[in-house]
Amino acid sequence: MAERSGRCLCGAVSYHFTGEPIAARVCWCKDCQHIASNGTVNAVVDTDSLTINGELSEFISVAESGNQIRRRFCPTCGSHLFANSSARPQYTVVRIGTLDDPSSISPTMNIWTKSAPAWACFDENLPLIEGQAPPPKVVEK
Fold first, then answer.
1. Which residue, 5, 8, 37, 46, could crosslink 79 as a Cys pair with Cβ 3.0–4.6 Å?
2. For the CENP-V/GFA domain, which residue ranges apply (predicted)?
3. Residue 89: which region, alpha, beta or left (left: phi > 0; alpha: psi -120 to 50)?
4. DSSP single-letter state for residue 90
5. Residue 3 above 90 pLDDT?
6. What pTM was computed for the model?
7. Could you tell me if residue 50 is inside a domain?
């Protein structure tokens, strides 16, 4: 079974998860643009497969969908690491750029492209979804 690890910029927070992501996407929503000044590249993983070491700070807001989004980040360096939606607490979004090997997961689509700036660069091989993608289809274990 695949295992991946990552950390924040200063190393105060580290994590690992097992298994393959349920989805991997580039998100262009306004919130992600505020976090990264660009789109964010995210892997959706089973929350139960994720182990986090270190203290996190969090910020909770309401998304355009009406769901509460809990974003967690390192209180020392500010690296944004994780997000959870009240609609799907069984999944955690992991920012792929924080992985020790970010090339180990490739995004499969761009979402919220209607919010992307005119200068956004899209991979021509990935589908463009104007809003939120439908929930990933998960095969029961």
1. 8
2. 4-113
3. alpha
4. T
5. yes
6. 0.87
7. yes
